[in-house]
């Protein structure tokens, strides 16, 4: 049975717990198993990354945690408020930047007189001060994704689910946002479950990386990431260290070999 138990050894309170979760699509006569028998525990404040090939169920697993998918078997326990950031910003084009964030604040029940100040604060946090009155179409792709992150943060989530949020961005914008999201999560203690195809992004962001295999989707390997995160070894500086290069290579080899083999130094989850 695939299992990922590192977080259960952590003394921090678990905020996400999946027990033998299976998700199926299709009809009763022709069901398709998207993920099978997944065990996953994520502790408070962890930054856990799901990585694997297309079709391995990473997004399905994330959507299941978010409550967007029904499980065919098993249980899902999410003990904190959840915010979601998708691959595309999914902003309302008829609203201003501030209006998009204010919409989330309104759903959260924040009184109207308080919303402008909260919008300004959130835009400051994501590096877009003074843009509340601009239209969405006036922003670059990277700026729009920052607004999407601010909108997710407006709900004051303790758990942030991120589905390849930087995949469509240019390299420099992607690096900048990677650093900002890691810093925001560390500063706030937010628990993050993050989906990516990239071994480099997984090692850069994660405190723990879970490798998935397809047909059906399942967790088959785990890589703890213990790297210095403080300046100057944060973001771009971290990428240049031998430790980062070694972990990235180890994860890349694991992803290439899954499920037939797992490279040395990576904990393998049993495969049924």
From TrEMBL:
Q: Which residues form a coiled coil?
A: none
Kindly give the CDD domains that the UniProt entry links to this protein: ABC_NrtD_SsuB_transporters (cd03293)
Q: Name one GO molecular function term.
A: ATP hydrolysis activity
Q: Which superkingdom is the protein from? A: Bacteria
**Which Pfam families does the UniProt record give?**
ABC_tran (PF00005)
What InterPro entries does UniProt report for this protein, alphabetically? AAA+_ATPase, ABC_transporter-like_ATP-bd, ABC_transporter-like_CS, ABC_transporter_ATP-bind, P-loop_NTPase
Q: What is this protein called?
A: ATP-binding cassette domain-containing protein
Naturally occurring in which organism (per UniProt): Streptomyces boluensis
């Amino acid at each position: 049975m695939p299992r990922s138990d590192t977080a259960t050894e952590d003394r921090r309170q678990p905020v996400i717990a999946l027990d033998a979760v299976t998700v199926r699509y299709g009809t009763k006569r022709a069901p398709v198993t998207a993920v099978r028998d997944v065990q996953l525990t994520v502790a408070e404040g962890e930054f856990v990354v799901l990585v694997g090939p297309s079709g391995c169920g990473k997004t399905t697993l994330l959507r299941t945690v978010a409550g967007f998918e029904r499980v065919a078997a098993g249980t899902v326990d999410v003990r904190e408020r959840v915010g979601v950031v998708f691959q595309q910003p999914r902003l309302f084009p008829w609203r201003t930047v501030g209006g998009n964030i204010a919409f989330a604040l309104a759903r959260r029940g924040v009184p109207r007189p308080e919303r402008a100040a909260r919008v300004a604060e959130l835009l400051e946090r994501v590096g877009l001060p003074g843009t509340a009155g601009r239209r969405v179409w006036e922003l670059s792709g990277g700026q729009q994704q920052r607004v999407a992150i601010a909108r997710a943060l407006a709900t004051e989530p303790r758990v942030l689910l991120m589905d390849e949020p930087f995949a469509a961005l240019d390299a420099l914008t992607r690096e900048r946002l990677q650093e900002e999201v890691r810093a925001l999560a560390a500063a706030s203690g937010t628990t993050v479950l993050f989906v990516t195809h990239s071994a480099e992004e997984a090692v850069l962001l994660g405190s723990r990386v879970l490798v998935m295999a397809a047909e059906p989707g399942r967790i088959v390997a785990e890589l703890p990431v213990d790297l210095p995160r403080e300046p100057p070894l944060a973001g771009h500086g971290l990428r240049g260290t031998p430790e980062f290069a070694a972990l990235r290579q180890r994860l890349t080899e694991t992803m290439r070999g899954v499920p037939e083999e797992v490279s040395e130094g990576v904990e393998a989850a049993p495969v049924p």
